[in-house]
Amino acid sequence: MPRTPYEENAASAWWRPVGPDECADPLRALARADIPAILLPQVCTPADCQQLMERFGERGLLRPPGDERTRIDIGTSLGNLGRDQEAFLADAEETHALFATLFAGLLDPVQLLYRHLQGLAPNKAVKTARERDGRLYGPAIFRIHYETHAYSPHIDHVVLREKRFNYEVARFTHQFAGVLCVQNADSAGAGVQAALHRCLWTEEIQPHIAAGSFHEYAAAHGVEHCEVALEPGDLYFFNTRCIHEVPAVQGDDPRAVLAVFIGYADDDDEIYVWS
Ligand SMILES: O=C(O)CCC(=O)C(=O)O
Ligand SMILES: [Fe+2]
User: Ligand 1 pocket: which of 183, 244, 262, 274 to mutate (most atoms <8 Å of CB)?
Assistant: First the structure.
């Protein structure tokens, strides 16, 4: 009997992103790193994405001329602000206020992302992450990456990497990311594509990440990887404990994404989403 793509992945024959209907419980498979990513092509149109970029420009949210920063964030980042919980939660409140009007008359890409995540987890409740007193985290973040910006091999995990224990999201064993491509770095070419390595982070891997020698480690150990080729309007989810990277943006078009982090545990009936 022919194998389903999920079984192929589980048998390690072929580790590649799968569509949401290609495995029975895609988030569980992601948690086990049986699959590298869940890929949902064209959840909105490139025209929707372009309108969003135009809106950011109209609202003065893109990089002004003369500004040398290679990354502009629209939203609240727990990674950057989490050291000061009060400041983080206050910033998140501002993001909620900003997003309440930012998409007026356009497709709301944050709701779109949450809806698709909910579709992958019919038996769990997808919610914006919150502290026990109800205060909300930022719901999602737009990241605009300009020429030379790169993410070298890394993981994202509120406990394993950031060692933050004073946040409610620390209760989730697994952390995923959801990334909606809003604009490709090079709209005429192949763009800049993320790579996911078939390697879950451990303390033993950390020295190779810290030394910038993960590629040598991966080659020596036969760690396979896959690329996730995205067009504007494509959404993907991956396990952020898998070592991943995004090569440097080249050219004049910034790479723009809408990104979230996701807290997941097989035995938790809630899924928390934040940025
Ligand atoms: O932009 C992406 O596709 C992934 C970015 C990433 O790894 C991160 O923001 O931590
Ligand atoms: Fe990451």
Answer: 244
The CATH number given to whatever domain includes residue 72 is: 2.60.120.620
Number of domains forming the structure of the chain:
1
Decide if 13 is inside a domain.
Answer: no
Residue 23 falls within a domain, yes or no? no
- Across the strands, what pairs with 194? 228
Q: pTM for this one?
A: 0.94
Give the burial class of 209: count Cβ atoms within 10 A of its Cβ; 0-12 exposed, 13-18 middle, 19 or more buried.
Answer: middle
179 pocket-lining for ligand 1 (C-beta < 6 Å): yes
Which ligand 1 atom is the nearest neighbour of the CA of 156? 10
Each residue's pLDDT expressed in tens, for the chain with a length of 275 residues: 455 555 555 544 589 999 999 988 999 999 999 999 999 999 999 999 999 999 999 999 999 999 999 999 999 999 999 999 999 999 999 999 999 999 999 999 999 999 999 999 999 999 999 999 999 999 999 999 999 999 999 999 999 999 999 999 999 999 999 999 999 998 677 678 899 999 999 999 999 999 999 999 999 999 999 999 999 999 999 999 999 999 999 988 999 999 999 999 999 999 999 99
Radius of gyration of the chain (CA): 18
Domain residues for 100?
Answer: 38-274
Residue 11 placed within a domain: no
